[in-house]
Each structure stands twice: as structure tokens, then as C-alpha cells.
Write a structure and sequence with these properties.
The chain is of the alpha/beta class. It is built from 14 helices and 17 strands. The chain has helices at 58-61, 74-90, 110-115, 127-134, 147-157, 175-185, 199-205, 221-230, 262-273, 280-305, 319-326, 358-364, 377-383, 385-389, and strands at 12-21, 36-43, 50-52, 98-102, 119-123, 140-141, 160-166, 186-197, 217-218, 233-241, 247-254, 310-313, 336-338, 355-357, 368-371, 393-396, 402-403. Strands 6-5-4-7-8-11-10 form a seven-stranded mixed beta sheet. Helix 5 runs parallel beside helix 6 (175-185). The longest helix is centred in the last third of the chain and has 26 residues, at 280-305. Bound molecules: thymidine-5'-diphosphate. Thymidine-5'-diphosphate is lined by residues 68, 72-73, 314-318, 338-340, 343, 373, 375-376, 379-380, 383.
Amino acid sequence: MKQCRICNSNTQQIISFGKMPIANGFVKKPSSKEFVFTLKIAFCPKCYMVQLGETVPPEKMFHDHYQFFSSTSKGMEKHFKKLANHIIKLIDNKKKPFVVEIGSNDGIMIKHIANAGIRHLGIEPSVNVAEVSKKFGVNVSSVFFNKKTALDINKKYGKADIICGSNVICHIENINSVFEGVAELLSDDGYFFFEEPYIYDIVKSNSFDQIYDEHVYYYSGLSVSNLAKKHGLELVDMKHQDVHGGSMRYYLKKITKNKVSTSVKKYIDHEEKLKLHELEGYLSFKKKIDTVCSDLIRLLKKLKSQGHTIAGYAATSKSTTLLNYAGIGPALIEYTSDTTPSKIGLFAPGSGIPVKSYQYFLDDKPRYVVLFAYNHKKEIFAKEVEYRKKGGKFIIYFPKVTIE
Ligand code: TYD
């Protein structure tokens, strides 16, 4: 098995999902020539980082036709507006604060910082996505954040009071270079914080579809505190976020005489209780994953044999892992409806399930839909009251397969 990308120790394999396409690689036509790689995750017994065994070159994932736009859910819009207000409060005492967001996407968060007239810089390598944020007045640079680009930013704008990122810090394979960049760019009393899917939640609720090519790292308080230390930073707070099926926001500062919140110890204690500092903590995970896949297939086959139409709800990236690992294709799920205009007419990677518009779903009224965007369940159930009233049923597959 590979060396740990953080500390170079030998890693231990947790699970292999076999050959997988790029999770967000929606295709114009299903073909056998899609790029594939072996999706597997490994654990480092020294620094506790859970990470992909094999990674995909970033240019295969984040390019000028990248299909992920953050602003596709009202819940996420609300979440990031709240985060922007939190940042504005944190820099309240600064004369000319400077905020840097790594992976600013379509501007969902940083547009509020721009609106408030605060000096800022969004970093977004996918040019098509960055263009959207410019329309909101966001100052954006389409580069990959690393030590070199951090030095360039420092030269041009000076030190940053806040460096942040959401659902992006886990994407960057050369994470040591990001942390080196942060150490260069962060002001002495500045905050670096990021929120990412939390391995504790993934293991606990069995949400294994968070594991895909873009997510190179699966963080915990245990691993982040080690990573931080390596770069002269300290984990000073952790705040759990009820998004993406359970995320954690980690707050880091330069090592000085920091006040460390009691939350850090609390969450790390929980992680240790689940044995996330040993391979053992991950061993029952594979068994639970296989149970979900076989239960889901059994249910879909049964409903199909009863003559029901089954569709998917939301063509998410994460559903790629589930569909390809379980071997589910259009024979079981006829199509998936999605609200993102650029995904419509394309086919889900690997599985070849066609993506149709939301209107198509409304007209078709399939009896069953598999909720691929289970992380937006509250918002979607509020939207689909009528559908459910008229007998439409959602199939949920975490933490176990149920019909609601
Ligand atoms: P997201 O949670 O961002 O998932 P992932 O990171 O796995 O791609 O899901 C966003 C997708 O869900 C996006 O393609 C839009 C779609 N979606 C709908 O189609 N309808 C909805 O009501 C919501 C909330 C999302």
C-alpha cells in the first residue's frame, strides 16, 4: 500500500471499491472508454489520516466544463450566507481585513463578503465556475492554491486575516503545500478554517458515497491536529455542520498561546471511542456498505418486477460511488432528474443513467425515486409534499435502505 501523503508512513487499506469513473464526469454518451481508476481508501496509523489509495490528476476533475455549482440548493445558500456573516464578525476589529477563500466555486459564500465591501480573493481553478462568481462582483483568481500562489497573493495583497475553504481542502492531494501556503499567507492572529465531510459521520451513518475521486482526504480532529502541527498551526476549535450528511469545520491558528476550545477534546474523544485512531475502527464499515448495496438492489428488483418506474432524484457526484459499486444502471433506475441545466441530457458516469430535467420528473410522476441528494432531504421533502401526497415514494439508503 502507498505511503501516507502527510507523513510518509506506510498506510493500511480500509476498502477497495474497484474501478470507478470520475464522480462528476457526466458524459454526452455512455461509452466503455470513460476514464477509470481504482477507488480505495487507506488509513495512516501514524497521523490517522484517511485518504484515497489512488488519485486522479486534478485536470481530469476540475476543468472548463466542470459540472459542480454550489448554488443548487437553498439550504446551502443559507448555510454559506451564515458563514459569511460569521466571518464578518470575526474580522470586526480589523481596519482593512483581507479574506481569501480557497475553492470559491460560483461565489456562494464570498459574494456576501464582496457585497459587504471587504477586501477578498476567491481562488477557483475551474474557469467556467469562477466566471459565474464574477457576475456577483467577486475578485477571483483561477489558480490552484499552493505555496507558490500563496506567496504571489501575499506579495500582491498582503497577509490574510481569514483563509477558508468549504468542501475543497479535502480535494487537494498536495495538502502539505496548501498548509505551507496558509502558513505563509495567514496573519499572526488570523484564522484558517475549513469544513469537509467528517469521517466520524461517514463511518457512523455508513454514508460511504462521500468516498469518490474528488475527496482525497477524510478528516477527523485526530488527523487535522497532526497535519496542523506539522505546519506550525494549531487546531483551536471544531464546529459540527449539519450539511453534506455531516461535516466538520476545523479552526486553525498559528501556534502561539492560543485558547483551545473544549470542543476539540470532546470531538477527538468521540473519534477515539469509535477507534478512528486504529484500523479496527474502520473494519465493520465494509460489511455495512455491502449490506446497503445488496438491500438496495433487492428492493429495486422487487419494485421493478412489480412493474413500477423507478427514477433517481438529483444527479449527485456521490451517487457515482453507490451506482458503480452496486452495479446499478438504467435497467433498474430509468433516469435521474436534476435541476442543474448543464447536466440535463447527459448520462451519469459509468452507470449510464440518463439525466432528465426536473420538469420531466414532475410530468412523469414515477412511483419511486431514489434520493441521491439525501443530504438535502429536508429541503426536498418540503418541496415534494404534493408528490408524496399523491403516492410518490422516496427510497433512502442511509444509514439503511428505507422507503419514506
Ligand atoms: P450535492 O449535495 O451538491 O451533491 P454532490 O456533491 O454529491 O454532487 O447535490 C447537488 C445536486 O443535486 C445538483 O446536481 C442539484 C441537485 N438537486 C436537485 O436536483 N434538486 C434539489 O432539490 C436539490 C436540493 C439538489
